[in-house]
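Service request form, structural biology core

Requester: graduate student, group of Dr. S.
Request type: structure prediction, single chain
Budget code: on file
Notes: please return the result as structure tokens.

Sequence provided:
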Amino acid sequence: MASPSPSPSPPPPPKEPSTTTVVTKTTNSRLIVLDSLIRLDTSLSKSLHTLFHPFLPGPILLLLEYSADFRLSFPVCLSLLFVPWSSNLRFPFLLPLIVGLLVDLSLIGLIKFVFRRSRPHYNPNMSAVVSVDHFSFPSGHASRVFYLASFISLSAATIQEALTDFRPPGGVFGMLIGEDEGKFVASVVLGVWAWAAVTSTSRVLLGRHFVLDVLAGVFVGVLEGPLGKQLHALNLYHLITTAAVLQSPE
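Core staff response, request fulfilled:
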């Protein structure tokens, strides 16, 4: 009589993937998604530039470009500190505004240094106004104009109060403001937001930046507005004068 054949041994249990394997797969998946996003962003930005660039009013867009450049906006804001009629706005508005511009410049420079994304290759002829660096992400113009729009919008009540206190009788300044300071300030705020939106959009249409560069710059700039208001809440002038007194020799 034949002996029964031995029963087959059970298959070995599947090996659990190691932690290193899981991390590698996750990293690779994220890189694939990021690469796809960058390709889509590049393609969309190039299509918008190609479509609209032939019809764009070059001088006007160049004027927008210069108006949002730090080398113009910062000296202009700094000079306003020494205008006689700006005394009521000097410390509650202008000083935090200027400090915020410096914070924006430093933060955008740091982010650009970390990401090091090259500017669009389809626009190699960059004018002098945008040749400060060769990195694209995020857009410094977009962050700057939206910081200004956000900060000015949050400071509307302060500006209106200062105009009401100053209000010279008649003259060109009085005619410009009109009878209602609130409407004048609201018009200024609306105009600054429109300027910020048009300037940021032009960065893509001119081929200076990609769409994601501009969106990131807008995000940073809008968040910097409340930061500027916090500088006012901290009584920045008091902190500066106190530090100066403490450092001066007795």
